[in-house]
């Protein structure tokens, strides 16, 4: 018997949707893509940019190892980029609240093109200079840290308030396409054509993304915006810590990533524990595949209003899945649970971004984007150090499993501590209601 429907094709009141209707609810919501030209530009430019950047992400450490033969020399690049990430991430957020965000994207894009061109030129030398690679790495961290807050702060300006969950989901596809295709393409290029070709592909992606930024509309800030300064940065930090719902988005993610970040252990896990070194690449791609599947079936997210609870539950699932993967009797078992972990991490990121974009005032959005960038960057960096240290002191399995268990306990403890985060409801939260009304009147 056919399901009764309204004139819009939805199940009539009181009727339950059929199987086809339930499956339709899982599909990605394309409303922001259809309704906003500038949103389409941001997504396309982000996809092109991130795909090229991930090719370079593979090429740069490969070149460093080729030139030095030292794992430590490769690791030093991470140390070189930490300080620029912290300092210029916060300053870039303050800039994003004071200048035209479109101009920030263009200027930093041009800077990234110049840096990549310098890397390519160095690669083509008879004797590439190692010190110049480190300099380019630091400069690129500065440019990226200045650019990212402006890009993140633009999303609430280019889509309607109620479309933000769908917009965040579609934007996450940018990262996932890059994470899946970028390293694979980079690996093929450095192994066959050479490092120069990989940097060349990255350069083309950066040029294309910067040209697309030029097509965006102008997004000037208010006449009463705060000029970038230590005081402005401090005001942003105070605002973030005053709001316990925002504090929860940072704290839960940092706890989850610091305690259960197993990626640094994948080579040892695949080679020494699971005895499958040839399948190491599948461990790296498992989380991205899980995240992609979660994204493509995320239509249900628009009906969730308790976003804090969704973040907590998803992060607990991340930790539990990582812990179970650590007990894997074979690599396929591990891949399956790392994929579940990747899907859970994507869901956590989705609802964290929705809280940020639906509740933070536009005049603070850039500064808070800088803080967000630090929260989801420093947690994994610290987590990799923790995982490696525990593995050296105990074993690889112990490090992965204990990290998962500690993550679950830590997230539960954080949720108990930050009750306002657990209780957050987008329909009634004062900040969400105010922003919904402001954007509705502006629209």
From TrEMBL:
Transmembrane helix keyword on record: yes
Record's signal peptide: none
Location within or outside the cell: Cell inner membrane
Annotated InterPro entries: MFS_trans_sf, TM_effector
Keywords of this entry: Cell membrane, Membrane, Transmembrane, Transmembrane helix, Transport
Its membrane topology: Multi-pass membrane protein
Top-level lineage group: Bacteria
The keyword Iron-sulfur belongs to this UniProt entry's keyword annotation: no
Spans traversing the lipid bilayer: 41-60, 72-92, 104-125, 196-216, 247-270, 282-301, 331-355
A GO CC annotation given for this chain: plasma membrane
Official protein name in the record: Major facilitator superfamily MFS_1
Organism: Kribbella flavida (strain DSM 17836 / JCM 10339 / NBRC 14399)
